[in-house]
Amino acid sequence: MLRFTKAALNVSGQGARHVRLSSTHAPEFHAKYGTGLMVGGFVFCVSVWGFVLTQTGITWNLSPVGKVQPKPWREVEE
């Protein structure tokens, strides 16, 4: 991080280009593990939501049509 800070303060921008071009950790990591992580995350999310939707017994109440009834009108008491 210190190298990047020094490069960001460099007026000519040569330092920033050097840090950007010399840093090869991110492309290697994503090329090596990116697809597997995306597939694993997708499978995890689908399995958790599948469990929640089928096993927890949550009543979702997706549409209030026909379920919401108005309260009876009250006359004003004098």
Description:
With 78 residues, this protein is mainly α. It is built from three helices and no strands. The longest helix is centred in the middle third of the chain and has 31 residues, at 25-55. The model has no long low-confidence stretch (mean pLDDT 77). It comes from Salvelinus namaycush (Lake trout).
**How many whole angstroms does the radius of gyration measure?**
29 Å
Shape: elongated
Poorly predicted tracts of residues? none
Q: Percent of residues in beta strands?
A: under 5%
What is the overall number of helices?
A: 3
The biggest beta sheet is recorded as: none
Helix/strand-derived category reads mainly alpha
* Element string (H = helix, E = strand): HHH
**DSSP E strands, number:** 0
Q: What is the typical, i.e. mean, pLDDT?
A: 77
Helix content: 55-70%
Instruction: Give the distance, in angstroms, between the N- and C-terminal Cα atoms.
Output: 75 Å
GO biological process, one term: mitochondrial electron transport, cytochrome c to oxygen
Transmembrane segments: 33-53
Membrane topology: Single-pass membrane protein
Pfam families: COX7B
What's the layout of helices and strands?
Blueprint: H1 2-9, H2 14-22, H3 25-55
Helix pairs in contact: 1-2
Organism: Salvelinus namaycush (Lake trout)
InterPro entries: Cyt_c_oxidase_suVIIB, Cyt_c_oxidase_suVIIB_dom_sf
Family: Belongs to the cytochrome c oxidase VIIb family.
Please outline what is shown here:
This protein is mostly helical and about 80 residues long.
